[in-house]
Amino acid sequence: MVTPRQLKQLADQHGTPLFVVDHHEIRRNFAMFRKHLPRVQAYYAVKANPDPAIVKTLFRAGASFDVASMPEFNIVHENIAKWPAKKRQDFIWDKIVYANPVKDNRTLAELDPYKPLVTYDNLAEVGKIKKYAPHAGLVLRVNVPNTGSMVELSSKFGASPGEAVDLMEAAFNAGLAVEGLSFHVGSQCTNYQNYVQALEIADSIFKEAWDRGHKQVRILDIGGGFPAPYDPHVQPFAELAKTLNAEFDRLFGPEIEIIAEPGRFMVATAAILAVEIIGKAVRNGKQCYYVNDGVYGTFSGVLFDHCQYHFKAFKKGPTQIASVFGPTCDALDVVSVAEDLPIGLQLGDYLYSENIGAYTIASATNFNGMPLPKVVAVGATL
Ligand SMILES: *Cc1c(COP(=O)(O)O)cnc(C)c1O
């Protein structure tokens, strides 16, 4: 990972706010995923961080991709389109899943020529796919427990397990090809039982589908949710992988092809943000610092991702609890009210925040005219 010293040099050189992406770390995360889950092909969920350089690095490492919009699709397509045709020929089949269960008609029509894998979870979608993307392969998204995950998704997506095979049959009856099923246990899932229960549900749906004659359903997409080590309470990934592998071996024969859609896991630890103190005040006896990026910018994850980021300073010494505010005029722009920071930081001093690669810059705005950070890549191969 980029050291504090390197970060300081980069901030001096490029100015702040500065978002440093460490591609070595991305490759390490991908390699860890592959090593611990050898049966699973990782489809990186582009929404976590759609930086084209990240897409390229992961493609080179062997990843496939999960996209949820035509612009995301194009980011992947354009960035691997430069690769030799031999590598590209099967692009769509093994390199992409369009995993947004609800798609507009135009998107479906644009996707159709690529014969993509697309997810769905309702009857209305079957009608749309039949009309606008009849060449797609279908993956049924089912609802599974999201208990304790930092971001829950189960109230918005997923057919109930009880209606799953009926929804598959509706698609078959419409002349479409259902190839598999998918779920998402919720993002930053630290309750590994969610996966165990989801795999049980998936197993019973496969069995019911096969019993009803649909033997061609054999892709299992276990979604995302793999946690980043934001704090020491998150159990090591190897533990989760051990649990998953045991369940895979118990429930699924080699005829089942297992894929996953990790987003956060691949990129969260791979970025650091450096900001600068642009104002300071003492309010109600508490030290407050104003910095040049906030919750409308790279710290958008505070609001959208329910994630709390912490700050470190390059200066050392005794500390005090301080608030850190973003640069906009909105009172909502509070990044943290409890940071342990050295006493006596000055205007122009840098602060930095680690593990800030996922769901941060991806959802940043330039509200109030505040610029987005400059992005610098470390360790990217051209
Ligand atoms: C957001 C999302 C992901 C990625 O989730 P992470 O928790 O970041 O791994 C994967 N699949 C789908 C369908 C998603 O919506």
Task: Characterize the structure shown.
With 382 residues, this protein is an alpha/beta fold. It has 2 domains: 4-17 and 270-378, Lyase, Ornithine Decarboxylase, Chain A, domain 1 (Beta Barrel), CATH 2.40.37.10; 23-268, TIM Barrel (Alpha-Beta Barrel), CATH 3.20.20.10. The protein has helices at residues 4-14, 23-36, 52-61, 70-80, 85-88, 91-95, 105-111, 123-132, 164-173, 193-211, 237-251, 264-267, 301-304; strands at 18-22, 40-45, 64-67, 96-98, 117-120, 137-141, 177-182, 219-221, 257-260, 271-283, 286-291, 312-313, 319-325, 334-342, 350-353, 374-378. Strands 1, 10, 11, 12, 13, 14, 15 and 16 form an 8-stranded mixed beta sheet that branches. The protein has an 8-stranded parallel β-barrel with strand order 2-3-4-5-6-7-8-9, surrounded by 5 helices. β10 and β11 form a beta hairpin. α2 (23-36) packs across α3, α3 crosses α4 (70-80) and α10 (193-211) runs parallel beside α11. The structure holds pyridoxal-5'-phosphate. Pyridoxal-5'-phosphate binds at residues 45, 47-48, 66, 99, 184, 187, 223-226, 261-265. Pyridoxal-5'-phosphate (PLP) binds next to α12.
